[in-house]
Amino acid sequence: MKIAALLTLAAFGTNTLAMYIPSGGSSCNVGEQYCGHYLRGKRGWTYAQLIDVIDRSPLPGRARNFPDDVLFKCTGVGQIAGWDLCNQCLSPGAVPGNDYCRKEDSLLQWD
After folding, report:
1. Cβ distance 69 to 36 under 8 Å?
2. What is the rounded CA–CA span in Å between residue 29 and residue 99?
3. Number of Cβ atoms within 10 Å of the Cβ of 108
4. Nearest CA-CA partner of 91 in 51, 14, 33, 46
5. pLDDT beyond 80 at 71
6. Taking the CB of residue 56, how many other CB atoms lie within 10 A of it?
7. Coil, strand, or helix at residue 57?
8. Quick one: which of 40, 49, 52, 96 is 20 to 30 A from 67 by CA?
9. More confident residue, 42 or 102
């Protein structure tokens, strides 16, 4: 039986985040934040992988219906954690920088 992923839990402040380690082909840069649509379109992540991370995160259950608008944080080489649920998750495109929720559109307040 091929193991597709290893799930680990990490504590960040008062939030517990689920991290997904893919079996291969998926990537991210440590410390960067990515919209789900960017991870699927440009980084090799699958819809199923994103849903798995969401299901194991403290994000609300409705987040699984909108994986493209979930903001993920790269916590290690090829590891992501569900970070925020956005009404609209934005990618800066060719300009270097993190993806982000429009400030007024973040559905979660962590601080």
Report:
1. yes
2. 12
3. 16
4. 33
5. yes
6. 18
7. coil
8. 96
9. 42
